[in-house]
Give the backbone structure.
Amino acid sequence: MSGPVRTQPLAGYPTGTPRCLRAIAAALGAVLLFASPSAGLPGLDQDSILRDHLWRDLTSRPRGRRPTVGLVLSGGSLRALAHAGVYSVLQDAGFPVDVVSGVSMGAVLGSAIADGVSGRKLSRLTPHMGFRGASNYGAFGLFRLAFFDSPLSSEKTEAWIDRSLSARRFEDLKKPFACVAMDIKSGEAIVFREGPLSPAVRASMNLPGIFSPVEYRHRYLVDGGVVDFIPVDAARLIGAEFVIASVTDLDFSQSRLKSVLNTLEQVIDIRGSLLAREQRKRANFLIEPRVPDIGFVESPRALEVVAQGVIAARRLLPAAQESLIIFSHPPMAKDWMRPGAGAPGGSE
Amino acid sequence: MTSRRLRAILERAGTGRAENGCARRALLLACWLVGAWSAAPARALGIPGWRSGEIQQVERLFEERRYDEVIAKLSGEGLNRLRFSGGLSRAYLYLGVSYERTRQFDKAVGVYQLGARLFPRNVDALTRLASLLHAMQLDEAARPLFEKVLRINPRHPAALVGLAEIERSLGFLDRSVGFYERALEARDKDASLYRTYAEVLYDRRDFRAAETAIRWSLTLQTSPESLLVLAYIRRSRGFGMEAVDIVRQMEDAALPEDALRYALLAAVWHMEAGQWHNAWSQAGLVLKAHPDDPLARYVRARAHLQTGRRDLSMKDLEVSAAGRAPFVAKASAALLDELKKEP
């Protein structure tokens, strides 16, 4: 409210309106135009000018003359769809993303990002990424689960990935990508970064207890979120120097446990979240969208979750840029120290 | 009109045509009912010509910017009196705006909320409340109010602009652009609206469209804000030197303190273009007025580095690292660390 306020006539206001009401309308227009926070265009304050300049310098450099940036996408079932919103903001701002790692639903989104799917397209795809589309969830499947102790199958996930992405193998992806699953027999975290893509992503989001383990490379694999909720180490393994992590934790005290599935998911998430404390510290920058409590089968609410990702990323974008700029100073400073043409004369 | 007719009737009644008191009382009652009946629709419809003396007085005070007196007149019983004499919905607006102008924003919000509750279809009160909440960064509360205004009047420009601003600040740039475009249909001669629209297009990295919008804004009205947006857009489209020229022109035309800010911007952009001499002299201009200016020191430090005068550079960086601009201080300290590490 303390910004400069100019009065201007509010066009479109009905003629014949008393003069004082027109004055009110004019003041209203002024408040809207000048007192609202400006989101993107740098201002004339010193921090904004320098941030904008250094950001241009940084983003114009090819990989190698600046740190390799890794985007890490946590698990969290449908809550992880917020990553689509986060990526969309990062992409709009020209934030470099060189490598991607993900776990569980984060692995599904991460594989799409690594395949070159844009943030906007990814956001549009999210309502189709529900539990139903990924499995044989339905009356018959649930009947078998309840009465014959026969888990559901996540096989449809593989078909969805093959249908939606152009790459079939990790090596075909446009950006290096890694995803994490857990071997249910040894409890090991298995990091996939080569070979066929869809079975690895399916294994990464294969919820234990609900889906039967994926048998792959002589292992029985389930959701990697149990052991590595924020796969920062996986990103480092494929070359990330600066890690920006999108974490879709839930405030568990606020969640409503509506079903057996929800309860099981929450147990997995709590465990994953506790184990991820160290990983949080290892990330260079965290974006934590305020995701709503959304159940397995509520994919029609996907865009609501994506919106939270957009809001969180937009709010933290300047801080994320600053963090990467400061981190990138060693290689940038080396370049600046090389004397060039057009040097100034005079002295202090 | 109504009162003259009433007076005539009363005068006739006083001449003795009505014989007894009872008949006179019945006539008075009938007159009052006729008066109330004829005034009520005018009041309800808010016909501009109809105003009670009280609200006219308030309007006059408001126009004369005597906001404290408007507040005194409308506080407490003042609003209650207007309930029966008309103009109550406007009174809420005058009171709210007066509170705003005297920087009592919490009270203004309270008044608008009450006004919006009493007159749920009064778009002025709703828009005013929404925009105040938006200015106080309470967008979650402001958004449904703007949306309500648009349900009543889908082309309400202030509500469209309000929603566009909210969407922009939240990061939904596509939606923001959509609202701006709808607002511009109603306000197609509004230069500042075209400017903010250009800014959102810039945020969306749609530089070509942003340039079209800002050039149209400048055709309607030239302002330093619009020129600055044009400079940023030209720079982003790869015309860095043209952008510097625009800023230098603004620097020449600006007041001394603003000129220094433009000089700093030009210094940084010269540095970006590798024109170290120009960057150095622009920074020097600022340092003449403010010897410890952090950004000017930073620019000069970078310029010194180009000539290999590391000691002078470090000296400047030490000053800017202790400066008041947090990010400039951090960047200076980081560069200083690197210089200390290098042999």
About this structure: The first helix of chain B runs from residue 2 to 17. Chain B has two domains: 1-231, 239-343.
